[in-house]
Give the backbone structure.
Amino acid sequence: MRHLRLVLLLASAAALHAEDGSRLWLRYDRIADEPLRAAYARILRQVHLVEDDGEDSTGHGSPTLRAARDELATGLAGLLGSAPTITVDQVFHRTHSPSARAAGFDLRFGPGGAVIEGSDDLEVLYGAFALLREVQTRVPVARLRLDSSPRIQRRILDHWDNLDGFVERGYAGSSLWDWADLPGRLDPRYRDYARANASVGINGVTLTNVNADPRVLTAPYLAKAAALADVFRPYGLRVYLTARFSAPLDIGGMKTADPRDPAVAAWWRAKADEIYRAIPDFGGFLVKANSEGEPGPQDYGGSHADGANLLADAVAPHGGIVLWRAFVYSPHDANDRTKQAYNEFQPLDGKFRDNVLLQIKNGPLDFQPREPFHPLFGAMPKTHLALEVQLTQEYLGQATFLAYLGPLYQECLESRTYRPGRDSTVASVIEASGAGGLSAIAGVANIGADRDWTGHPLSAANWYAFGRLAWDPALPSAAIAEEWVRQSFSNDPRVVQGLGAILMASRPAVVDGTMPLGLHHIMARGHHYGPGPWVDGGRPDWTAVYYHKADAEGLGFDRTAAGSNALGQYAPEVAQAWGDLATCPDDLLLWFHHVPWDYRMRSGRPMWDELCLRYQRGFEEVQAMARQWDGLQALVDPERFARVAALFRQQAEETAVWRDGCLQYFQQFSRRPLPPGVPAPAHDLAYYEAIDLRHMPGDPSGR
Amino acid sequence: MRHLRLVLLLASAAALHAEDGSRLWLRYDRIADEPLRAAYARILRQVHLVEDDGEDSTGHGSPTLRAARDELATGLAGLLGSAPTITVDQVFHRTHSPSARAAGFDLRFGPGGAVIEGSDDLEVLYGAFALLREVQTRVPVARLRLDSSPRIQRRILDHWDNLDGFVERGYAGSSLWDWADLPGRLDPRYRDYARANASVGINGVTLTNVNADPRVLTAPYLAKAAALADVFRPYGLRVYLTARFSAPLDIGGMKTADPRDPAVAAWWRAKADEIYRAIPDFGGFLVKANSEGEPGPQDYGGSHADGANLLADAVAPHGGIVLWRAFVYSPHDANDRTKQAYNEFQPLDGKFRDNVLLQIKNGPLDFQPREPFHPLFGAMPKTHLALEVQLTQEYLGQATFLAYLGPLYQECLESRTYRPGRDSTVASVIEASGAGGLSAIAGVANIGADRDWTGHPLSAANWYAFGRLAWDPALPSAAIAEEWVRQSFSNDPRVVQGLGAILMASRPAVVDGTMPLGLHHIMARGHHYGPGPWVDGGRPDWTAVYYHKADAEGLGFDRTAAGSNALGQYAPEVAQAWGDLATCPDDLLLWFHHVPWDYRMRSGRPMWDELCLRYQRGFEEVQAMARQWDGLQALVDPERFARVAALFRQQAEETAVWRDGCLQYFQQFSRRPLPPGVPAPAHDLAYYEAIDLRHMPGDPSGR
């Protein structure tokens, strides 16, 4: 018998609690730098909360003020090691005259501590989160004064969650809402969800999928939604529901859902009354109608305005609103699909009730990696227009690819529409709607039951960025990324700069790696994850060939006057710039033009070579992000490090598949060699066409 | 302007990290009692790991030994505040003679520290977890010696998880296995899952639903399963897969799946070879065949033995096994459904290969709250028999009701079969199979992606109890409950006793409150959650009336010789005791007898009164558990306290619905008044019959 003795000395035990991302950006870890911690603690030994319009007479503060106090106590105790003394002042205006200050909060620091003054209790709560953000991001606060008010009134997350727990285009597990559990049991995550939203100013949540199940409007489900609303209320988060237009038939026992039938109108009024009895601060309805098979007013010869106004009249007595989606296109309309929403809605300008918003996706197609802004922005001056963006990543690599979408939101918001005024932008259009008392922005949530909420450890940045931009569309997306990194990972400058750079590089990497130069809708069928430029057959506007129009001459969709003239839907300044090959930006080239393979690009290269090099650049950008991330290994927790590193490996593999599959396919038409620097594909075209992914999450066709 | 100042002083900040149950029973929180902690630390400053059969030559120990070391380091650092010195001895047996000791581990404490000696590296790991269990449960270890070896070889969790993330009869969120993520990304939960299993000795996991998707046997999914197996391997957890019998047709391009076709046998052999290339320690196949619509050998005129042996021959060269389920019953068999498995399988005794186990549910029907043991146990002495129990709670209130199932497992394991020997029990029958080299027990998992793994904060106790009883079927379930409480909640004697008592009371409360006195299968259709004694129509053996047979004379299924004679399938001793009304236990009365409403029970009461009082007792038992739990509020964390309190409220409401709905229904036949002490139902029968629950989790018919 032989003996071998190994003596293993352990320098330190592994961390007891793995970092699972569940705390999001509200981590409140103790400040390690002792002098800095002491300096903050000195300033923050007292925090004064001042509510300008206090109406509470209990002597204990409203639930919202208590939430502010609790968050500050917990957060500062974590950051500083000891909780401050917190006082609450409620200032009553005897005359009910307008508040001394406009909506918003004022945060200031002085010798007497910090003062958070808000126009109401919710604004105080927002101020409390702002204070915690300043400390978490290590802003020197000694003489800071921050005066902030939201630029858009309704800042809403749209959940595409079905009642059976499935999240359409959701890649972070099943639905947060446990309908079987509700209303009796309230998952603690509901409150954490509300806290996270309030921390970035999000004040609304649409619980259910736009492909709506009418049963959510029945009494049992209203009781469940009301239980959620009760949890959310102290955090200023209002509940909205999707309404299936045929609900009067589906659940109401009616024979019709005709918007002009008085009995139908009465049914909706009674239903709205019932909802408001359960949820007194119910936000309103979000409606997808006459789109992709959903029922709508056109089934009865009515218009979208007839449908929207029907529901709007039902909720109006209660202060509710209707968000009517402009995402419509018809299987019977031979027009370029990107033109159809404008054609349907623009003529209805001025026909909608005052409590209706038309909710318009950022681009005229459908959440592609890059789209021009939607031509309806600026084209309906007599209608409230709301912007809808996605936080989830349909068409953008789902929860596998890193795609920080702050720059996409910013790109859209900054887009100049030249209508109604010369200086108009998408942001000013949706904000201007607010002058009349109503403005909104909606984000399709990327949130599920995964422990880290969003599936990819870095994609909570999209949730954060959406909220921050909804509050102030002028915030630079890079600054938002930095804020998020500091709170979610570290204030170490190497992490702040390194991870900040990765985030900012990520969306261009997806565009280059999958649909560069304005290519769009060339993804695989169904799950929309991998490449599918060869997708053909069936409904034409659901194929790829409909959009890329590759042929022996060139590539791209001619939307100039010589083609579909979708450009004619934009202001003349826009149409002119984008309609001219010489002034159209490279990024939108193939969106608006059918471009010859040998067209000389700004780079001096033929279009084909440029296309190939963009795909290759996308691949290299992913590798570069992965390398940068590897360099941060010592500075981030091992759990998130390993997960993100594995995701980058997968993204690189998938991006190579995109590059090789698309170039193999397009090369059939270009009949040109790959330029130097672009490697030969690993497989033949048949290999890529045969890839058949199964069971991708979030794919309704794969259930 | 009026001023109101509220000064809110905070005694202490709220806990920063909410208790979410994610650590299960492996919490390793620091021992608060300082002298006790110091005493443990003195004894445990050194831990020696001794592997009797070490074959590792790297000098670093095997991955399993490293896992043992890491767990001890992390666990003891948490419990004691400092990590011990850990040494590893590997003892090589030059002659390859049998190890000095049998399979198992030996744990002893002395002046030189703790010594964990194992017959191989996995047994060392089990010993490490045992050591941590002793400390976590505050066992005085100074002179402790623990010698332990498993009584059953294969201790397997069966996951009824579909490839799309849906868990059939799963009530804790979606599947743990993220198939879209695999094999590239490995959720950290996979390792935690393996740790939890190893900590209680579970050594196998069947990844997929018995209603099998053949695609799991294709190359892409085998790569995914292999990635999981790689994570699980250091923890001794082997992967098994479910095999759809028609896989040669479904995915193999064959024209038949006939078990007697040589080409089919060759296909399975090649498939097994492929699997073992990916997963060298693959456990084997679990098969549901010719049951509830699944394909099987009978489709080709073959027997279950033909089918099982076909797969067994394929995996035999690799040391694999086949677990062939005995849960079969036919829509065309007019026999009492509970008799059909015995009728089909008993005649095949001796016909199965040596690497086949017949996997038999605890009872002859289907996981009801209480069943007699399955008559096949003891009736097939020439066949390896495995026991299948459920951890999930189909028919037992899902994740809403508390049902600690340790007592159910124990009740079954202790049941005397009187076959093959006079002293035989179910436990000895399944252990005896091991003498020939093969024994197994399987538990249908209650685990999902919920943060607390099992949905109800207390139902992880079922996971724990299954593992502990699989290791040693003689462990008392109350002692196991106490172990679990100490590790998962607290060693405070009030919690240990109070929560222990709640757990032990919980399964009787479910039996009494839903299906007392041997009633069975009277639940609602589809989701199987609420009451449904009125369920009738369609396939008879899927109704309730088929089983309760209520009429003007009485209630219950006559399975004596005068009836279906299911009793004839048991040993004479059993058949006689249960066949006689005078000796049949109350708990099985209506399972085996059609009993007159006025039959005088042991209590002296007529059966109808006893039935009513049992339902009422079930309701009161839930209220009592809730009160006991309320008394523990100050001693448990607020998160789990609130969640469990809410669940008890819901369980009480649902139990009242069971009581009132069932008694309203049966009263139509008994035509007798409710006895004193049983309140009048809140609603009429139509109300209960009309309850239509939607979107219950885990219900395949509700998707």
Notes: Residues 170 and 698 of chain A are 5 Å apart (CA to CA). Chain A touches chain B through 79 residues (CB under 8 Å). Chain A has 20 helices and 16 strands. The longest strand of chain A covers residues 85-92.
